[in-house]
Amino acid sequence: MASFVAPILLLAASVTPALAFCGAHTHLDKRAEGEVPISTFSASGPTGPLLWAQLDPANSACADGTRQSPIDMVPGVFTMMSGRNMTMAFTDLPEGAEFENLGSTVEVVMEGLGSSMVLDGLNYTLQQFHFHHPSEHLDNGTTMPMEMHLVFMHEEAEVAVMGVYIDIADPESEQAPSTMLETIFSSVGEIAEPGTVTKTQALALTEVQGMLESGTFQRYSGSLTTPPCSEGVSWLVATQKLVLSRATFQNARSVLGFNARYVQGAPGERNLLQMFASPEIAPAENSTVAQNQTTLRRRWRA
Ligand SMILES: [Zn+2]
Questions:
Q1: Angstrom distance (rounded) from CA 15 to CA 30
Q2: Which of 94, 110, 226, 247 could bond to 21 as cystine, CB 3.0-4.6 Å?
Q3: Buried b / exposed e across 130-168, counting CB within 10 Å, b at 16+?
């Protein structure tokens, strides 16, 4: 634990203290013991993602970063990775875990509870997982009802996030609603107000581990999807989806509200806000952005 301290203090000193979402419980989050901080940003309006960079100079990457998340997961922007090539060691929690409402999302706190994974030979520990409605990434152009983000951190402050789409259970399908998700959201009504916290019932994380190991991940290098939009985040978007019953989804949505950042340009392209500020500098014709625009124009004509 001692090796955590120096990088945590150095990095935390330069960013906004009350962080939520992708940054909570990582080196970017600095909170008092027992406190549930309420986010100072939102997903829409004057504190929404078009203006995050204006909220704090530390958020500049939100407006000028070129590897921002979320993105449309179309072929060409990611590499595939088998779940069997990753070593996941998720721990079931018979005592449950803290479940808190940060205003910008609801989050299960996993810091110190022993779940981890190995990526590129580095050991990452699970800090928290939280939810977005609708999904932040697009699954090849399509939004999904929700997306879960499992946020991992390596001791040298590297961040990796697993994104898992959540769909609404189809009575015609064989896939049953996730026991872990149904358990978590059965207590979402207890944290309807931002700044509140409760405890979940026993959680079976190994159920989710088994699902993830049997599938594949779409991998790319992106950013936190919330301020300060820090880049260098290893994204692993699962192709296997979890499902929720319709009633549970509706309960979750009533507390989450809308909390997704708009879809960013493809990795390596200019930031969309910079393109907006300088429209005379159009993307190169052979760029992914230009190709996407052509595709969109075709779709709209159809
Ligand atoms: Zn997130």
A1: 9
A2: 226
A3: bbbbbbbbbbeeebbbbbbbbbbbbbebbbbbbbbbbbb
Contacts of 199 (CB under 8 A, 6+ apart): 96, 97, 98, 99, 187
Angle at 238 between CA 170 and CA 273, to 5 degrees: 105
Domains in the chain with CATH codes: 2-268 (3.10.200.10)
Q: How far does residue 280's CA lie from ligand 1's centre (Å)?
A: 33
Can you name the residues that pair with 147 across neighbouring β-strands? 132, 165
Q: Please name the amino acid found at residue 201.
A: Q
What tens digit of pLDDT does each residue of 21-54 get? 566 666 656 555 567 889 999 999 999 999 999 9
Distance 151 CA to ligand 1 centre (A): 8
From ligand 1's centre to the CA of 22, what distance in Å? 4
Distances 20 to 40, 55, 298 between C-alpha atoms, Å: 9, 15, 38
pTM of this prediction? 0.86
Distance between Cα 281 and ligand 1 center (Å): 31
How many whole angstroms from 24 Cα to the centroid of ligand 1? Answer: 9
| Residue 214 CA to ligand 1 centre (angstroms) | 23
Which one-letter DSSP state was computed for residue 186? T
Q: How far apart are CA 134 and CA 248, in angstroms?
A: 15
Distance between Cα 155 and ligand 1 center (Å): 20
pLDDT at 156: 84
**Ligand 1 centroid vs 301 CA: distance in angstroms?**
34
Structure-token pair, residue 90: 């998720």
Distance from the alpha carbon of residue 269 to the mean position of ligand 1, in angstroms: 22
Alpha carbon distance 272, 262 (integer Å): 10
Task: State the SS3 of 72-108.
Answer: ECCCCCCEEEEHHHCEEECCCECCCCEEEECCCCEEE
State the pLDDT at residue 7: 38
